[in-house]
Amino acid sequence: MKGKFIVFEGIDGSGKTTQINQLSKWLIGTDIIPENNQLVITREPGGTKLGQSIRSLLLDNSIEKSPDSITELLLYAADRSQHINEIIRPALNKGNWVISDRFCGSTIAYQGYGRKLDIKLIKDLEMIATQGISPDITFLLDIPVEESIKRRINIKDDRIEKEGRDFLLNVSLGFQALSEDRKWKKISAINSKENIMSEIQSEIKKLIQYK
Ligand code: TMP
């Protein structure tokens, strides 16, 4: 079977990592993906070696002078371009599956709705960076902003998370709008982990017409 490209989006604390881990165990445990090496779990920013350096530049709080908004946008685009060329396209070409924690939607939500950068500019950069590759399915793990703040109370904020409640509210609005526009699967992430996983599994089964 040809591989699929699956993306998880959502505000910080929405439980993407947990669900990605569960989903990969389930995919390997069924006959959907026969071999471990046919599944690539990755993330943005930081899915490649170069991307890991870009990630530190983007998220490190200790950097003396933060990048301005356009520089930030270009760094996310650079990370994505490398990610597409080094990891995502080669894996899909081999017929492997790819699950990415965040992709283009995050840039529209955070830099577009959060930082208020021009959405058209962001979409143009998306086209340059992705070179025609788009997810087969995107899950939006949806939690209220208050819940996100509550869940992260004991976790040190990175540079973007530090922006605070109003910023996060705008980002969340961005994700809601994208989920409508791009026909994402929106899943309420305040349900139990098991319920969330079973919704995800049933969407994947639909995607590949698995009996
Ligand atoms: P995460 O890996 O913990 O989800 O953190 C990545 C952070 O980077 C998160 O706060 C969202 C932010 N981000 C953007 O602002 N724009 C983007 O395009 C991406 C991929 C992430």
Structural commentary:
The chain has helices at residues 16-29, 49-59, 69-93, 104-114, 119-130, 145-151, 165-181, 193-208, and strands at 5-9, 39-43, 97-101, 137-142, 185-188. Helix 4 (104-114) crosses helix 7. The chain is globular. It is α/β, with parallel strands linked by helices and 211 residues long. 54% of the residues lie in helices and 12% in strands. Bound molecules: thymidine-5'-phosphate. Residues 12, 43-45, 59, 76, 102, 106-107, 110-111, 158, 160-161 line the site of thymidine-5'-phosphate (TMP). Residues 12, 43-45, 59, 76, 102, 106-107, 110-111, 158, 160-161 line the site of thymidine-5'-phosphate.
Task: Please give the number of β-strands.
Answer: 5
**Fraction of residues in helix:** 40-55%
Helical run tally: 8
- Tell me about the biggest sheet? 5 strands, parallel
β-sheet strand percentage: 5-15%
**SSE pattern:** EHEHHEHHEHHEH
Distance between the termini: 14 Å
The distinct bound ligands, ions and cofactors come out as: thymidine-5'-phosphate
Taking strands numbered 1, 2, ... along the chain, how are they ordered across the largest sheet? 2-3-1-4-5
Shape, per Cα inertia axes: globular
**Computed CA radius of gyration, to the nearest angstrom:** 17 Å
**Mean of residue pLDDT values:** 95
Low-confidence sequence ranges: none
Class inferred from helices and paired strands: alpha/beta
What is the compact description of this entry?
With 211 residues, the chain is of the alpha/beta class. It contains eight helices and five strands.
